[in-house]
Amino acid sequence: MAQSLYLLKHLYLTMLRIRLCEESLVEPIMSGKIRTPCHLYSGEEAVAAGLCVSLTDDDYLFGNHRSHGHFLAKGGSMQEMMAEIFCRETGCSLGRGGSMHLIAPEVGMMGSAPIVAGTISLALGAALAASIRKEKRIAVTFFGDGAAGEGVLYESMNFASLKKLPLIFACENNFYATHLPIRECRKTSEIYRIAEPFCIKTVVVDGNDVLAVYEAGKEAVEQCRSGKGPIFMEFLTYRFRGHVGPDDNIQGSHTDIRPKEEVEEWLRRDPILLFEEYLLDNKLFDIAALENIRKEAEQEVALALDFAQNSATPKSEELTAYVCR
Amino acid sequence: MSADRKLPYSLAINEALHQMMAADSSVFLIGQGVKSPWYVGNTAQGLLEKFGDTRVIDTPVSENAITGAAVGAALAGMRPVVVHPRMDFMLYAFDPIINEAANWHYMNGAKSCAPVVIWGIINRGGEQAAQHSQALHALFAHIPGLKVVMPATPFDAKGLMISAIKDDNPVIYIDDRWLYKTEEHVPEEPYTVPIGKGIIRKTGKDITIVSVSYMAIEAVKAAEALKDKGIDVEVIDVRTVKPLDYDLIFKSVRKTGRLVTADVGWKSFGFAAEIAAFVCEKAFKYLKAPIVRITLPDVPAPASSVLENIYYPNSDDIIKAIEEVIQCPTK
Predict the structure, then answer these.
(1) Spatial separation of the C-alpha atoms in residues B213 and B153, rounded to whole Å
(2) Would an 8 Å CB–CB cutoff place A159 in contact with chain B?
(3) Known active-site residue B132
(4) Could you tell me how many CB contacts below 8 A there are between chain A and chain B?
(5) In contact, A100 and A65? CB cutoff 8 Å
(6) Which domain holds residue B173?
(7) Quick one: B147 and B283 in the same domain?
């Protein structure tokens, strides 16, 4: 299936922007310059990049604790996100939210929150709003395999199906709920099956193959937009880093308990490397062209880091501002 | 039209919903039982017929997701009213109410807000026991970012519902089935009762009683009865629990020097305690006697009507408390 060079570049650039932005956080986390808990997305970039490219700014996206990638792929400003991670007043949440509260309503990034499954029902409501207003926009809720243990997901699937709401349940299955492997959380790792009793169409996608994500995502978005109701997408993927911070279950503590062989096996399936191979093998881009795209991303990251670190912190006298509108 | 048109409390709520849904297409009603007369009384009557089932949405029993959906719809530009016919069931929705709606504006740097009305009905008495009788306003009033209103009269029931729907913040609207049949003049045109403003139901100089919701009715009754005994009681109905009208309470206590609080909830850590703490902090020098709290005992609601009769305080309990405070030797 032939995709335009523009699309291919966009997918590659989006994945690189996410990866390089996040990897640039590792040093400041380890040196204590960043203290807000950062749940890094490295390794899962193909999901956000591949799915969000089919969304418009009018479509609603709700994220979770691991949403740097969702925010960037949806079109949020890297500078504002980086500043938020450094808890500066120029951040997207004015330094009140930190890494886990990323928002850019102007591009449909409606917010993210770390209560596992907590934003699923919010996306359900955004889809309901679109449906009541008879709009063509859709909503996407990103959540992980851990959220499949929360009751609100099942309530939300039932209601979305009942009312045929334009909602994509985007489950990023990285096989770990914080420290706990999926086999210790559920009898089957095939999460998509939980949607079947609600008569919701399901699809399982290789979450490390950006083109597979793109194709499946495009179809899902079309289905929702045309009024055929919700869809449940399970993306099989893996985080290269720890649950929170570079390699930890507690930020800064080197406590990742995953088997080394398992991590190495997934590193060989790095979505960015896989896509580079595809682009080169099919002579769609040459090495110089890829290098240029990487430079573009590197420059943006450098500027964003610089912007964040040189931004002012929130003012003490404004502690109580913004509790209510 | 008629200046003395009377409406019961429940139909005052109904009229507010009709008028707001007609005036603003982003307003919709969602929750369990909005199609059923016995779930929400007659508060929803005629809405389905007039506005259709896309804006009057009866739901499966899924309080968490449905409340979250109301919050999410609010974030997406709607002004939903989500109803919980028994507020006990709202506890399933603590996450969308507290973690999400209440915190949303602050934790997102004021980029977005949730103009949602979360309507919980207190449904006490009738030997319904612990899980069908609770008044949980203090739990919500504890949370920064939530507003909590509790109208005691038909006039306020309509005006506060309209204010709650128009407010850009999440508002917990709590009414009490015991009030549904009370009647008074309610203007036909839409109007607002300001959130955060209490009202003096009866002026007096000897003692202040700060009351809320159903206890405001009992407080007025008690004040009337005490007139004959020569005790001049000032009755404040706070109407809004949060933000509380501290100024009104301060001025009254400064005048009377005595305070009784009357709540529909439990004693410890509750509404009555908050009023008492405030007065001790800010108006201590005006106090002539200790403060007394009239509340539920720290006990779950019993089923037996024999026990119910002593569980729920009424005007007699208020009278007794006021007499005690008045008789207390002044400093």
Answers:
(1) 8
(2) yes
(3) yes
(4) 146
(5) yes
(6) 6-185
(7) no
Of A105, A155, A323, the CB nearest to B112: A105
Question: Residue B192 domain-assigned?
Answer: no
Domain ranges of chain A: 5-307
Give domain status of residue B310, yes or no. Answer: yes
User: Which residues on A lie below 8 Å from B76 (Cβ)?
Assistant: 60, 110, 125-126, 129-130, 139
Which chain A residue has its CA at the smallest distance from B65's CA? A121
pLDDT tens for B217-233 read 999 999 999 999 999 99
For residue A93, the chain B residues in CB contact (below 8 A) are 107-109, 111
Residues B17 and B93 in one domain: yes
Choose the final residue of a domain: B144, B160, B185. Answer: B185
What six digits make up the tokens of A12?
């590659």
- B28 and B175 share a domain? yes
The model's pTM: 0.97
Best of A128, A134, A198 to disrupt the B interface by mutation (most B CBs within 10 Å)?
Answer: A128
* Region label for A304, one of left (φ > 0), alpha (ψ between -120 and 50) or beta (otherwise): alpha
Selection from B42, B44, B41 nearest residue B56 by Cα? B44
- Judging contacts by C-beta atoms under 8 Å, the chain A residues touching residue B99 are 113, 115, 118
Q: Residues of A numbered 44-73 whose beta carbons fall under 8 angstroms of chain B's beta carbons: which are they?
A: 60, 62
| Residue B227 dihedral angles phi and psi, to the nearest 5° | -50, -45
Looking at the structure, tell me whether residues B141 and B281 fall in a common domain: no
Tokens standing for residue A158: 């039932």
Q: Quote the tokens at residue A296.
A: 């573009």
Check: CB of residue A18 under 8 Å from CB of residue A41.
Answer: yes
* CATH number of the domain that residue B150 is part of: 3.40.50.970
Q: Quick one: how far is CA B189 from the chain centroid?
A: 22
Spatial separation of the C-alpha atoms in residues A259 and A244, rounded to whole Å? 17
Chain B residues within 8 Å of chain A (Cβ atoms): 28, 54-55, 59-60, 62, 64-78, 80, 95-96, 99-100, 104-113, 144-145, 147, 168-169
Partner residue facing B109 (CB), from A97, A110, A162: A97
Instruction: Count the domains in chain B.
Output: 2
Classify burial at B127, counting beta carbons within 10 Å of its beta carbon; exposed 0-12, middle 13-18, buried 19 or more.
middle
User: ipTM of this complex > 0.90?
Assistant: yes
- In this structure, the answer to whether residues B157 and B46 fall within a common structural domain is yes
Residue B221: CATH number of its domain: 3.40.50.920
Q: Is residue B318 part of a domain?
A: yes
CB contact under 8 A, A122 and B62: no
Going by pLDDT thresholds of 50, 70 and 90, the confidence category of residue A1 is: low
Q: Are residues B154 and B212 in the same domain?
A: no
Q: Is the pLDDT of residue A122 over 60?
A: yes
Residue B251 and residue B141 in one domain: no
B184 is catalytic: no
Q: What is the CATH number of domain A5-307?
A: 3.40.50.970
- B213 Cβ contact list (under 8 Å, min separation 6): B122, B135, B137, B150, B151, B152, B174, B175, B176, B179, B264
* Pair (B13, B114) in one structural domain: yes
- CA A33 to chain B, closest CA, distance in angstroms equals 21
Lowest model confidence (mean pLDDT) among A58-62, A186-190, A231-235, B61-65: A186-190
B321 part of a folded domain? yes
Chain B residues whose CB is inside 8 A of the A88 CB are none
